[in-house]
Ribosomal RNA small subunit methyltransferase A (Arthrobacter pityocampae), 297 residues
Amino acid sequence: MTTPPAAGPPAPLFGAADIRRLAAEVDIRPTKTLGQNFVIDGNTIRRIVAAAHLGPAETVLEVGPGLGSLTLGLLDAAERVVAVEIDPVLAGKLPETIARWRPERAAALDVVLEDALRVTSLPHAPTSLVANLPYNVAVPVVLNLLERFPSLTHGLVMVQDEVADRLAAPPGSRTYGVPSVKAAWYSGMTKAGVIGMNVFWPAPKIASGLVRFTRREPPATTATREQVFAVIDAAFAQRRKTLRAALAGWAGSPVLAEQALRAAGVDPTARGEVLDITAFARIAEARVDAPGAAPTH
């Protein structure tokens, strides 16, 4: 077992010059394709780590560690960090960087060269997810990791600010949609702050948002997650339509959709944006349990 260092003066974290020097050492220029925006401010890293509410015995899953800005802060706070990195150059550089900046913590880092959308196993079961996620894949990454790794009990992710608003949105709000409902299947999500653009290299064109989550049990239902998610997708594919109309294709006809909605105790003239995850689970269950119902996927 590795143990985080005892409390004392804050250990050094990367500044802008450190990040640019590390990038130059491996001839890396941040790419938009991989959503690479490296944090260049140590105080921002400390803020993220503090907001993650990590315990000293935790194993943290970090996605997209890049040059290691956040990794250093996580190793200062948790027992172990498992970092999933898709870029082979960055994945190869990270252990060397940690050995240089935190030699006493180098053994507490595992680097997995993998796409976070496809990773199915890790060397240690993570208890927390803390990550600066690429903007273009943030929602599917979060949902995939929550599905794949039930050991994740809580976490904090930094995403594009409007994505943060969607993930944490309650039913009935303007930003409530598919990400909000699907995330609620796994956890309760809340907005935990906003991070400005100037603490990144390169600076993005929009602010970032912090989203904190705590895992909870999915709604009690005989429907599968896939069946519930199929209802969610159908309901929001035609957001402005009533549920009777929006779910007609999913159910087989408007009449069958109305039957499922009424069996679930949902007004057929309502819209999906007012329903919580429990209501969507009831609709899926009502369709599954309907006499002669065709399988839903």
Q: What stands out?
A: The mean pLDDT is 93.
